[in-house]
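>> Question from a student workshop board

For tomorrow's exercise we were told to take the sequence and the ligand below, predict the bound structure, and bring the output to class. My setup keeps failing. Could a helper post the expected result so I can at least see what it should look like? The ligand is 3,4-dihydroxyphenylalanine.
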Amino acid sequence: MKDRIDQLLAEINTIRAISMDEVEQLRLKYLSKKGLVSALFDDFKGVPAGSKREVGQLLNELKNKAQQKLDDLKSQFEQREEVSAAKPDLTRPAGHIEPGTRHPLSIVRNQIIEIFGRIGYTVADGPEIEDDWHNFSALNFTPDHPARDMQDTFFIAQDPDILLRTHTSSVQIRTMESTKPPIRMIFPGRVFRNEAISARAHCIFHQVEGLYIDKNVSFADLKQTLMYFAKEMFGEHTKIRLRPSYFPFTEPSGEMDVSCNICGGVGCNICKYTGWVEILGCGMVDPNALDNCGIDSKSYTGFAFGMGIERITMLKYQIRDLRLFYENDVRFLKQFTGAF
Ligand code: DAH
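>> Workshop helper replied:
Here is what the output should look like for this input. Compare the format with yours to find the bug.
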């Protein structure tokens, strides 16, 4: 009898069930009136009187153990059923999803692309990691030009120099090397300079470069194109002013100011009380740059310009700190809901 009890106890300790039905089967097998445990109680009558106390105790323990085990299994399945009964209520109204907005720099970049698109400029891009030739040498930078200084350029490797492009003018070179004139293109992109981050400067920023090469392109074409752009971007009352400047890859070179759209030219702290703000560099492509790329400078002339997208966006939206563009604060970002 004792052996039989031990055997059943061991069996009960290992029982498992994969459904509520199986739990019920097990209950019938062990604990129902005709079950295995109940059968032992029937046999109990035949146990000699001297052992009754001990065997009775063991039998009761077995019964309790079996009951406990089945209760445990049952409650496991009850819990699972509760979880699966908690199905989502499909009739509830959906939570509010805040739609995203375009980043102000993207809005202005797309607007620049659109404005130049209207006068026949197509868009291309080039690599952010450049070699010395495309970022400097082909653009007529002499070997000791200060812009090559370690202070400005992030070098990645030396001999040969590999660097993060410091301007999108590198894409001018790539385009002139691979495309026959006429060329009428703009090149938007990200550029990198080793500068301390402040309200007015960042080590990563964005430019749009423009290039027009054909027969008989003149400085008057450049001026007219830029005037058209400034009026489209800042409004038809905008005036432009070209000042002589120097870039190795353009001759003559200029910088263009637009009349301050914040004070209307009267003078404010944005234009430093001059009424004008500088927005781009430009000039006629230096014959050396054309020849470096296999374009005959005797037959072709062209102009180029390069503008900073951050600067134009700051003016357009009167943003005083450039770092706001990179902080990703939604309170700032969601103010810009331009169509672009
Ligand atoms: N690459 C110049 C810069 O980053 C900007 C520039 C000036 C671009 C004159 C031009 C240009 O294409 O003609 O400061």
